[in-house]
Specification:
Layout lengths: L2 H19 L36 H22 L4 H4 L3 H6 L6 H22 L10 H11 L2 H14 L4 E7 L5 E7 L10 E7 L6 H4 L3 H8 L5 H13 L1
Antiparallel strand pairs: 1-2, 1-3
Length: 241
Amino acid sequence: MNRRNFLITGSTALAGVFLATNPLRVYADHHLQGDHSHGYELPKLDYGYDALEPHIDKRTMEIHYGKHHQGYVNKLNAALANNHALSELSVEDLLRNIKKVPMKIRQAVINSGGGHANHTLFWSTMISGGRELTGKVAEAMQSTFGSLDAAKEKFTVTAKTHFGSGWAWLVVDKKNKLQIYATKNQDSPLMEGHTPILGLDVWEHAYYLKYQNRRADYIDAWSKVVNWKQVNLNYLAAMKA
């Protein structure tokens, strides 16, 4: 079996496992469903642009989702236009195997593939009115960080103090333990073999229209629309994978 066939066969098997263990389809674009004819696609939102008001405003959602995220999808497709084997991979598998991506396109894949994966998770973990932090993820956070308040505070401080553009994350690491940390730009925890279950975008484009330079206010507002029920399901899926 040559390398190209190995990548395609391996990605199909991995995709099947991922779908079976992740009913929320955090990274489930059409690639995981066997349609490779049009490249990666923007995932559909489960709510309207105005659903997160007043915490996340409608105009920001329109631009953030329709312009920024769509831009990452377009650039990812362009970067992989001449590499059919890699374009067959799900975005999750692509980032987990980033060291196999040729150097000449690797940074473009990190930037745009990360942007696609990161935002897909971001949209899925917000909901109007938020949801209560309960379930196995709450138990794990309490055990790992000492209390739920301590865990939330660590996440908030990580997001507020991160310098420049990037993301704050709650992830399941290689040892099935929770970690909280930040990454720069569109770097994804997937590249470290970790599974992100909650991510907060702290790029200025995520909040500038409403909050200008007040990142802390944006983060406090975002905390009111976190769908912890979704995060718990993400955690359960990550632990099973």
